[in-house]
Amino acid sequence: MPAVGKELPISLLEIQPREELLWTSMDPALPAAFPPCIKNIIGKTAGEKGRHRKAAILASFLGQLGWCNAEAKLLWSNAVAVEERIFTEWFGMMHCPKCKTLQRQSRGYPDLGILDLRLCQPDEKCREFVGPVEYAAVLVTEKDWSRGSQKHIRTIYKARVFDWTAGKVGEIELSLAEKDELESLQKVQKENDMLVYTREKVRGKLRSRFFLKETVGPRRQLLSELL
Predict the structure, then answer these.
(1) Cα 84 from Cα 163, distance rounded (Å)
(2) Are residues 15 and 27 in the same domain?
(3) Does the residue 33 lie in any domain?
(4) Which of 17, 112, 141, 219 has the least CB density, counted as fewest CB within 10 Å?
(5) Per-residue pLDDT tens over the stretch 162-178
(6) pLDDT digit string (tens) for 36-48?
(7) Residue 2 located in a structural domain
(8) 83 with 44: CB under 8 angstroms?
């Protein structure tokens, strides 16, 4: 992924749809079974810092644990003081991040790393699990996942592209609108046009943006494009 505002010349190889499923427990776990990081969020250990990150993590966690909307919202609203839209966007709609993600340094929401908040204080049980949901629901083997159900939450699109700057193939996750925009650009792309990928902030969120840029001299093309 390019830094915000940096432009990468790319060639589009293909776009593939992928169905995203969300696992939800049939038997809601009680607060006593929550991992240390979630208990620290509820206990407001980190104060006001990182409010939106904590709100998103807690909402997604409760959603996957099978809590009903009313009870989850009550617990969530007592633990975090942010706008309700965060609960709506994350409860039952997003995966709770794994420990690997939580233990990263974050630049702020929606990046859910919480290293700077010092909420991750592993106990002896933490080493057995890859994330908060697995910890609370005691998901150790594949058989354990049968105690929940999978539901379709969205269709995402993966664009395989060739990055001319790095000289390698990569993937870009797209929304439906971004997919349509990219396909439209591909249709009107001329011989001397280079497809460019960048990221920009829109209403506080990072968005992918594509545009065509006229090149001087022959445009770099893959053999598949020429064929």
Answers:
(1) 39
(2) no
(3) yes
(4) 141
(5) 999 999 999 999 988 89
(6) 999 999 998 777 8
(7) no
(8) no
Residue 209 · residue 19 · CB < 8 Å: no
Last residue of a domain, one of 131, 152, 173: 152
Q: CA torsion 212→216→217→219, rounded to 10°? A: -20
What single string gives the DSSP state of each residue in the chain? -PPTT--EEEEEEEEEEEEEEEEEESSPPPGGGS-HHHHHHHTTTTTTTTHHHHHHHHHHHHHHTT--HHHHHHHHHHH--S-THHHHHHTTTSPPPPHHHHTS--SSTTS---GGGT-----TTGGG-SSHHHHHHT--SGGGGGGEEEEEEEEEEEEEEEETTTTEEEEEEE-HHHHHHHHHHHHH--TTEEEEEEEEEETTEEEEEEEEEEPSSSPP--HHHH-
Report pLDDT digits (tens) over 70-91.
999 999 999 999 999 999 999 9
- Tokens at residue 189, please? 């792309």
Average pLDDT value for the chain: 91
Query: Which of 190, 207, 189, 186 lies closest to 198, judged by CA?
Result: 207
- What's the distance, Cα to Cα, between the start and end of the chain in Å? 28
Dist. CA 71–CA 186, nearest whole Å: 48
Tokens coding 115: 């290293």
The domain total for the chain is 2
What is residue 220's predicted lDDT score, i.e. its pLDDT? 62
Compute how many other C-beta atoms are within 10 angstroms of the C-beta atom of residue 132.
Answer: 27
Question: What integer is the mean pLDDT of 159-163?
Answer: 95
- CATH number of the domain bearing residue 205: 2.40.50
